[in-house]
Design goal:
Chain A: Keywords: Cytoplasmic vesicle, Golgi apparatus, Membrane, Phosphoprotein, Protein transport, Transport. The complex is a heterodimer of chains A (937) and B (418). Chain A has 937 residues and is an alpha+beta fold. Chain A is 50% helix and 11% strand. In chain A, the strands form three sheets. In chain A, strands 10, 11, 12, 13, 14 and 15 form a six-stranded antiparallel β-sheet that branches. A five-stranded antiparallel β-sheet of chain A has the order 1-2-3-7-5, with no helix packed on it. A four-stranded antiparallel β-sheet of chain A has the order 6-4-8-9, with no helix packed on it. Chain B folds into three domains: 2-148, 2-Layer Sandwich (Beta-Lactamase); 178-270 and 384-416, Sandwich (Immunoglobulin-like); 274-380, Mu homology domain, subdomain B (Immunoglobulin-like, Sandwich), CATH 2.60.40.1170. Chain B is 17% helix and 42% strand. Chain B has seven helices and 23 strands. In chain B, the strands form five sheets. Chain B has a nine-stranded mixed β-sheet, with no helix packed on it. In chain B, strands 2-1-5-4-3 form a five-stranded antiparallel β-sheet. A four-stranded antiparallel β-sheet of chain B has the order 14-15-20-17, with no helix packed on it. In chain B, a hairpin with a 4-residue loop joins β18 (329-333) and β19 (338-344). Chain B starts with a strand and ends with a strand. Classes of the chains: A alpha+beta (937), B alpha+beta (418). Chains A and B meet through α1, α3, α6, α8 and α10 of A and β2, β4, α2, α4 and β7 of B.
């Protein structure tokens, strides 16, 4: 086969025509191999390659999605410029293909086409934009990769898809995760505020601190979403994913939260040595900024004699960075064992590490110095040389106390041959010749003798030494200096000749010597600042961690700079997906017929008057809920036919009865959202009296949200007009409420739209039905103008949909508000297996089972849509199911823990049967209504 | 992303090349050879090498260098992780990943590489998906293939790529349904001269071999999940359930896979199963040295310690060793300077001892450092951390599978300094 020749790198291009003929062959293996061949040689034989194009074009129309995909894949891999228009067309078509797999292939094809013809960029960006809006996990990774390659600067394309990407992330395949996380890191840097503004005064930018003083930092919920959704990925088996999350946390998380990544990174150190190498490089950078994070794992960086040298040196770097007053003694003891290693490069690095510890930690400087001096008697020359160099640096910090060491080192010049070490000793003696006045001239004498045989750097230092001695002790050394200068004058190296000439002019007084020679002493014997021993990893963190550029400490091609935090946050509303809708979760889609992804909507709290009107009827629901004494009764009635209840509402004149019927009406109207004629009188009847004080509450039941995992819908608690500038919204976060598991967690967001600050926000005077309980949020002491703050409170609704009423107080005003839960929020997911589900279902028959036939709405024919709609409506979890036609969900009510089981069985022709099994019949009935409504729309 | 891949053997032959974008001349590997020469040991070759126009990211596995060529910024771990995945895939397909097997199965290798990357970006890296498209070679199949002229390329289309659980293929059928789990723990430790523990930790993995029909949904629970400090999972494990209930709930891949790896809480003191008494000394005069090592069981929880092996990397000046072992055999390789003492089972009554003299190169100075000892050992039926599987439940499918859990403790990087 030709493939073998390609693999071996031989040129098989002569056979091209013969091979291309086989393209139309039926046998799949031959076909595949021909593809391989074609892709490899098409560039060289363009004309012939064109022969095969028609085959692929036919493939693109194939009914089988996999054949369509592979045809596109090969077609786009053929690097022949003439077919660019054909490719463009194919990609565009595939991007709107039914099959997500074909769309994924289209995303893969984009960078291929871009590299072939960059002029197509604009068109390709359009395709990318379209694919970014895709909601399947299969496509997400590939399209972000295409985005990074074609148009990484178009950060604006991400806004609308940000929340969706965050939510999908955990289900994307691992390679896609890496790409998405890296991209989101950059995105977050441009869109959110630095979470460490308040915490770290280290940030030099005065602008920051000024900002910090003015208003306290509140993390954007989207920023939080990203951090929360990436955290589980630290547990990935893929090292690249872990690293990607680690760098995201390092670059984006508040200081207090970064610590979680340390454990995961230390785990990676168990992996292959190449992985270790990369991880250690990154850890080394991190340890400089955030030392505390890795301190508990100090011992994991201890070095084994079997580690490869490059790993040893990196570990050493990390250990050095981690050293502080408390652990230095342990670290130094470790270093002592390392010095005895057979690996000399490693020993040299250890000595330097000791030097750095000594400079950084004053307390151990003397200990280190003594240790290093002992090393001077080591038999290995490299060790001695390295010690000399390090000692020189250390001595420079406090030379006065260590003249004996200098003397000791002077003696070493007889033995040490390593040029760098010799040069260091000479420099030391020259610099501190006053401390060793007797030895210095002697050393110079010896050096003068061997001058011609020395290395260049040593020669330069001899010249220096001579010059310094001449200035301090000219009596003894005048002749020697002259001699050395003369030798240097005829040296082969021009640097040395230049230096000699320069020194002679400066120090030897002649009649011609200018003004400079007067200052010779100052020039040579000026106090020199001690060198700072720094980690080579310092400041490397301006490269995005985990990137190739960071590893090389140089910009690699195509590297995207990690932007600095913005000084003030850009408008967060650009990420809102809907127009004018107060839906906050990612990936939401409105069913109200509004175009998703239109213009950026205003602030969530500014819901329009139109919406309020629609909400009024919902308000009544609340009222009826709180007043009707027998909720139970009305619920059971509501399960009767809709028309009956509607008729009843019209005929009945008793007000009380009427209110009850309103409740029924709400349910019926929610099944059929178009207002029916009967509605009008009821609407008028109540809206006039109630709207005034209850305007704040809105339950926009007509809005349906679809979100893949955590769809959170915001409800209005207090409108900003009613609240005199204070807008309050709430949502059911579906998180467990930790202080009391029987309570439903309600997240409340206060937004201060006034120009002055609001003080002491708290709850007062709750009016609750018997059995209901409230756990108030801690009082908010201060809410500055224009800020928002989120708090969580817990409410035990006793498994009923009755409202919890209370007063919301500020320092000036009190507002009556109430929270009424949709029935779907009264439960928490329960994880059952199929067998458990069936068993439980068997026990909840008869009265506890409510079944309803329905016709599925156009948009929810698929499993996926059904699952999304049901879970959006009710906080349930999915139960695995053997049959394809069925979807099962399970949950437990929050207060009493009664099981709620939901089954949706699809039938032919869009029909379906919905069954709810629940001990609490009221809950069951209401849930059936809600889900029915969700599925039929 | 990944531009090209070269496979290079230890003697520097490029025996396979594959390009996912335009062709890059193999002369780019010269930079790699240069770095390799500079590094000496294969372990010391820097994983990332910079050349004027490209970056070379390489890994070394099974005596083969996998050298990939990169042109633009990409997370290096991304590439490294992928290359390891390629090596593992070869191992999975051909039983071992060596030059010979790769050359023998060149066509399959080529097909695999073609499917794993598209334009340099990973496409299908799950072995289950790949096996659906490209059948692994077996003796029987290759015989049938040569006779009938058919191929080992699956005629079916890879539906697994479309599913939400890409790691499992549909329609798995077995006559014997079985699920085996191996809990393997490794002790990483550094002991100092006097035998005190400088550093010790336990790392464990749970490897599974699951051969079950249909789409089983498994739940594995532990008696003491609190022991597990840091975990990483196969993508099939539902992380949310782990977070809330500390059980592993998953639809398993078909065949062998690593379910999870974990790290045992560092606060728990690690039991060190053996102790080592050693005395290695070199004499200044006479160019000789003495060696005396005794190994004995320490905290073994009543189990036998098996497969004990002591490896010592001797200093360069040691020419030969003249030793006597009371148990097991020893070998000394004068070229690599590695002394291996294979002890076998540890006997409580009679402690194994290795004693004798070492002869050094005459005239050379005595080595300053005593070589450290690396110890290998194995304890069957024991997870040294005390981790225990509580139960395994299967849902969705009706049949009764055979279940089994095995525990093994091994020495990981277990080093005694001298």
């Amino acid at each position: 086969l030709h493939v073998i020749m390609i693999a071996r790198g031989k040129n098989a291009s002569d056979l091209f025509p013969a091979v291309v003929k086989n393209v139309a062959c039926k046998n799949i293996e031959v076909k595949k191999l021909v593809y391989v061949y074609l892709v490899r040689y098409a560039e060289e034989q363009q004309d012939l390659a064109l022969l095969s194009i028609s085959t692929f074009q036919r493939g693109l129309k194939d009914p089988n999605q996999l054949i369509r995909a592979s045809a596109l894949r090969v077609l786009s891999s053929i690097r022949v410029t003439i077919i660019v228009p054909i490719m463009m067309l194919a990609i565009k078509e595939a991007a709107s293909d039914m099959s997500p797999y074909v769309r994924k292939t289209a995303a893969h094809a984009i960078p291929k086409l871009y590299s072939l013809d960059p002029e197509q960029k604009d068109q390709l960006i359009e395709v990318i934009e379209k694919l970014l809006a895709d909601k399947t996990t299969l496509v997400a990774g590939s399209v972000v990769m295409a985005f990074e390659e074609v148009c990484p600067e178009r950060i604006d394309l991400i806004h609308k898809n940000y929340r969706k990407l965050c939510n999908l992330l955990i289900d994307v395949e691992e390679w896609g995760q890496v790409v998405i996380i890296n991209m989101l890191t950059r995105y977050a840097r441009t869109q959110f505020l630095n979470p460490n503004i308040n915490v770290s005064p280290l940030i030099e930018r005065c602008v920051y601190s000024a900002l910090a003083k003015r208003k306290p930092y509140v993390m954007d919920p989207d920023h939080r979403l990203l951090l929360r959704n990436t955290k589980p990925l630290l547990q990935s088996r893929n090292a690249a994913v872990v690293m990607a999350v680690a760098q995201l946390y390092f670059h984006l998380a508040p200081k207090a939260e970064v610590g979680v990544i340390a454990k995961a990174l230390v785990r990676l150190m168990r992996s292959h040595s190449e992985v270790q190498y990369v991880v250690l490089q990154n850890v080394a950078t991190m340890t400089i900024k955030r030392r505390g994070m890795f301190e508990p794992y100090l011992k994991s960086f201890y070095i084994r004699s079997t580690d490869p040298t490059q790993i040893k040196i990196l570990k050493l770097e990390v250990l050095t960075n981690l050293a502080n007053e408390t652990n230095i003694s342990t670290i130094l003891r470790e270093f002592q064992t390392y010095i005895k290693s057979m690996d000399k490069d490693f020993v040299a690095a250890t000595i330097q590490a000791i030097g750095r510890c000594a400079t950084n930690i004053g307390e151990v400087r003397d200990t280190c110095l003594n240790g290093l001096v002992q090393l001077l008697s080591n038999r290995d020359e490299l060790v001695v040389a390295e010690s000399v160099v390090v000692i020189k640096k250390l001595l420079q910090m406090q030379p006065e106390q260590h003249s004996d060491i200098i003397k000791h080192m002077a003696k070493l010049t007889d033995n040490i041959q390593v040029p760098m070490a010799r040069a260091s000793i000479l420099w030391l003696i020259g610099e501190y010749c006053e401390h060793v006045p007797k030895i210095a001239p002697d050393v110079l004498r010896k050096m003068a003798k061997s001058f011609t045989n020395e290395e260049d750097i040593v020669k330069l230092q001899i010249l220096n030494l001579a010059a310094k001695l001449y200035l301090t002790n000219s009596k003894q050394t005048k002749l020697l200096t002259q001699y050395v200068l003369n030798l240097a004058k005829y040296d082969q190296n021009y640097d040395i000749r230049d230096r000699a000439r320069f020194i002679r002019q400066l120090i030897v007084p002649t009649d011609k010597s200018g003004a400079l020679s007067k200052y010779a002493k100052k020039l040579f014997l000026a106090l020199k600042p001690a060198p700072v021993l720094e980690s080579p990893f310092k400041d490397r963190d301006h490269f995005q961690l985990g990137s190739l550029s960071h590893l090389l400490n140089a910009k690699a091609g195509g590297y995207q700079e990690l932007p600095d935090w913005p000084e003030s946050a850009p408008d967060p509303s650009v990420r809102n997906v809907e127009v004018k809708d107060s839906v906050r979760a990612g990936g939401t889609v409105t069913l109200r017929g509004r175009a998703p992804g239109g213009q950026a909507c205003g602030h969530c709290s500014s819901s329009s008057g139109e919406e309020q009107k629609r909400n009024r009827k919902v308000v009544k629901e609340r009222r009826s809920g709180s007043e009707s004494e027998s909720e139970e009764e009305s619920e059971s009635e509501s399960s009767e036919s809709e028309s009956e209840s509607e008729e009843e509402s019209e005929s009945d004149t008793d007000i009380k009865k009427k209110k009850k019927s309103i409740n029924l009406f709400i349910f019926s109207s929610s099944v059929d959202p178009t207002p029916s004629p009967q509605v009008t009188p009821v609407n008028n009847f109540l809206s006039s009296s109630l709207v005034a004080d209850l305007e704040g509450l809105s339950l926009t039941d007509t809005v349906l949200t679809i979100a893949p995992s955590s769809s959170v819908r915001m409800y209005e608690l207090l409108h900003r007009i009613t609240g005199e500038g204070l807008a309050v919204e709430y949502c059911f976060s579906r998180q467990p409420f930790s202080p009391d598991p029987h309570m439903v967690a309600v997240q409340i967001q206060f937004t201060n739209n006034t120009s002055s600050e609001t003080k002491s926000l708290h709850i007062e005077d709750p009016k609750l039905q018997s059995g209901m309980r409230i756990k108030e949020f801690p009082e908010i002491e201060l809410l500055p103008a224009g800020e928002s703050v989120n708090v969580v409170m817990g409410i035990d609704f006793c498994d009923s949909t009755q409202a919890a009423n209370f007063q919301l107080c500020t320092h000036t005003r009190k507002f009556f508000v109430s929270i009424q839960p949709p029935v779907g929020e009264l439960m928490v997911p329960a994880f059952l297996t199929e067998n458990e589900f069936k068993k439980e279902q068997g026990q909840l028959m008869g009265m506890n089972e409510i079944s309803e036939k329905l016709n599925l709405g156009e948009k929810c024919q698929s499993d996926h849509a059904i699952v999304e709609r049901v879970t959006a409506k009710a906080n349930l979890s999915r139960v695995p199911c053997g049959s394809e036609k069925e979807n099962r969900f399970a949950g437990k009510t929050v207060s009493s823990g009664s099981l709620v089981l939901v089954t949706v069985a699809r039938k032919e022709g869009g029909g379906a049967q919905l069954t709810v099994n629940c001990e609490k019949m009221v809950i069951g009935t209401m849930l059936v209504k809600d889900i029915l409504q969700a599925l039929t729309q | 992303m990944i531009h090209s891949l070269f496979l290079i053997n230890n003697s520097g032959d490029i025996f396979l090349e594959k390009h996912w974008k335009s062709v890059i001349s193999r002369s780019v590997c010269d930079y790699f050879f240069e770095a390799q020469e500079k590094a000496g040991e294969p372990d010391n070759v820097p994983p990332v090498i910079r050349t004027p126009h490209h970056y070379l990211i390489n890994i070394y596995r099974e005596k083969i260098f996998f050298v990939s060529v990169i042109q633009t910024e990409v997370p290096p771990l991304f590439v490294i992780e992928f290359l390891h995945r390629v090596a593992e895939m070869f191992q999975d397909y051909f039983g071992e990943c060596s030059e010979v097997t790769i050359k023998d199965n060149l066509v399959i290798v080529y097909e695999l590489l073609e499917e794993m990357l598209d334009n340099g970006f990973p496409l299908a890296t799950e072995s289950n998906i790949l096996k659906e498209m490209i059948k692994p070679p077996t003796i029987l199949r290759s015989m049938v293939n040569t006779i009938t002229g058919s191929s080992n390329l699956g005629a079916t289309l890879p539906t697994g790529q479309l599913s939400t659980i890409p790691w499992r293929r549909a329609d798995v059928k077995y006559t014997n349904n079985e699920a085996y789990f191996d809990v393997v723990e490794e002790i990483d430790a550094i002991l100092d001269k006097s035998g005190t523990t400088v550093f010790a930790e336990i790392q464990g993995v749970i490897d599974a071999c699951v051969k079950l029909s249909g789409m089983p949904d498994l739940t594995l629970s532990f008696m003491n999940p609190r022991l597990l400090d840091d975990v990483s999972f196969h993508p099939c494990v539902r992380f949310k359930r782990w977070e809330s209930e500390r059980v592993l709930s998953f639809i398993p891949p078909d065949g062998n896979f690593r379910l999870m790896s974990y790290h045992v809480n560092a606060q728990n003191l690690v039991a060190i199963p053996v102790y080592v008494k050693q005395n290695i000394s070199f004499f200044e005069s006479g160019s000789s040295g003495r060696l005396d090592i005794t190994v004995g069981p320490k905290q073994t929880m009543g189990k036998t310690v098996e497969c004990v092996l002591v490896t010592i990397h001797m200093p360069k000046v040691v020419l030969s060793a003249n030793l006597t072992a009371t148990q097991g055999t020893y070998t000394y390789d004068p070229v690599t300077k590695i002394l291996v003492w294979d002890i076998g089972k540890l006997n409580q009554q009679k402690l194994p001892n290795l004693k004798g003299s070492l002869s050094l190169q005459s005239g050379a100075p005595k080595p300053e450092e005593n070589p450290s000892l690396n110890i290998d050992l194995k304890i069957q039926q024991l997870a040294i951390s005390g981790l225990k599987v509580n139960r395994l439940d299967m849902y969705v499918e009706k049949y009764k599978p055979f279940k089994g859990v095995k525990y093994v403790t091994k020495a990981g990087k277990f080093q005694v300094r001298t």
